[in-house]
Amino acid sequence: MTGLITTQGTLRADELGLLLPHEHIFVDLGPIEAEHWRDADPEDVLELMGPEIEAAIDAGVTALVECTPMGVGRRADIDVTVSEATGLPVVLPTGIYQEPFVPEWAVEASEDEIREWMLAELTEGIEETGIRAAWIKLSASDDGMTETEEKILRAAAAAGAETGALIGSHTVAGAVAHTQLDVLEAVGYAPERFVWIHTQAEDDQSTHHAVANRGAWIEYDGIGGEKPDAYYLERIEAALEAGLGDRVLLSMDRGWYDPSEPGGGEPDPYTYLPKRFLPKLRDAVGTDETRRLTQDNPFRAFARQSAR
Description:
By secondary structure, the protein is α/β, with parallel strands linked by helices. Helix content is about 40%, strand content about 15%. Helix 4 (about 110-125) crosses helix 5 (about 145-165) and helix 9 packs across helix 10.
């Protein structure tokens, strides 16, 4: 059975609706050496983020993909606490962020050791939660992958190929996304199981299409942020006109509780896309296309064979 592995079990497509493929419940953006994430209390996070999750549910969100990997404060136990209290399924990642945020153990580890760690989280569970990671979240430096980042990418490719797990990478530049695809293809990982996260940061729209034409997902995930809605609508319509509608994902990159901020900071609501952007999108491309972009596509991207 192909299913989406979540904190609420493995779910079928017909059990889900609107799915947000790039959000954060908890992320530590403070100084690396401070490691504020270690001492965060799940109940404090729930107090701040619980109402935001409940508002998202009321707006029609049926699941949320947590995009915080190791290196920027991943706390799967906190995600599980929030999910259980609110009833919203959360999709958890394994994976490691870019340098200089790569944990020292991963800098020193071999490619095989990192692969085995990812495999364990994808097939057995993350730490003490008992919840399997559904996908692999990575990142690449803006000017190109470092040696360590490439090692982690190759390890992810091996783990992803064995499990069918998606790899998503925080990658700002289109040239770097192409390089990542080159590495993945060289080791036999399918481009169709790769997401170029933050595609909107690359201004060259032809690069978006070139990456999608290689089979990868392009993700416009800053909706409701610095760029106006018209920017996203234009690029979505262009992708549809180019026949790339099956390779587009939409999200906001919102939330979150940041333990380096007093009281966790002030979260951005998860409701912008469902309440403000989707009506504009439906007017522009129709109900069927909107459903494909916000329900069918994210399920196809993040779901995998649940037996492994």
